[in-house]
Automatic annotation (TrEMBL):
It holds the Pfam family adh_short. It comes from Spirosoma aureum. This is SDR family NAD(P)-dependent oxidoreductase.
Length: 214
């Protein structure tokens, strides 16, 4: 049975590039998103390239649906070897615009669901192979007042990566995050999806550094 990369929060940028990069190393790929039609298109492209892949739907506002999706991945493709959490609530919002309810809703997507996802898959990860990879952002260090919620979320991602690493390292599960400090686009000089995906592969393969700022 192939190793399985489960990607939560899928789009045409970083997450899809990570899927292709890990597939080159023999991983089957599970793409998990709230837009099932979109990821089914990505899965068809992966399958056309000879990659074992599956599309799975979840509602980012419903934590239970993420747990269900990850369990479906296990049934269809096998236990998750590497979890790549890429989901984020992306929108502007200042102190005057945000509310307690909006911050809590975003925190669920940006941070809390990571914990749920990790707890769902870690029990069957193989020591020395298991991995948790989190997409971070430079907002964690920028104090961007017009992106209050996302800044809090990305700062929490760095802290959570360190906490998860301390907890899971004894079990042989690697935890790492790439803090992406630039605008991601295919034509960028540095911050292309493919370049970031390569950094994720290096991070996972080396298994010695929790955070890389890229």
């Amino acid at each position: 049975m192939a190793k399985v990369l489960s990607v939560v929060g899928v789009g045409p940028g970083i997450s899809l590039a990570v899927a292709h990069r890990f597939a080159r190393e023999g991983f089957a790929v599970a793409l998990i998103s709230r837009d099932l039609a979109k990821v089914e298109g990505y899965v068809n492209d992966l399958k056309a390239a000879g990659i074992e892949a599956g599309a799975f739907e979840y509602d980012s506002a419903d934590s239970a649906s993420l747990e269900t999706a990850l369990k479906q991945v296990e049934k269809q493709l096998g236990p998750t070897t590497v979890l790549h959490y890429n989901a984020a609530s992306l929108h502007k919002g200042s102190l005057e615009q945000e509310t307690a309810d909006s911050l809590v809703a975003d925190f669920r997507v940006n941070t809390a669901n990571i914990v749920l996802a990790v707890n769902t898959v870690r029990g069957k990860m193989v020591p020395g192979e298991g991995g948790i990879l989190l997409t971070g952002g430079g907002l964690a260090y920028m104090n961007a007042t017009d992106y209050l919620s996302l800044t809090l979320g990305k700062a929490a991602t760095v802290t959570l990566a360190n906490l998860l690493n301390k907890t899971l390292k004894p079990a042989g599960i690697f935890v790492g995050t790439i803090t992406v400090s630039g605008t991601v686009r295919p034509t960028a000089e540095k911050h292309t999806p493919d370049n970031i995906a390569e950094e994720f592969w290096k991070l996972y393969s080396d298994r010695s550094t929790v955070e890389v700022r890229f």
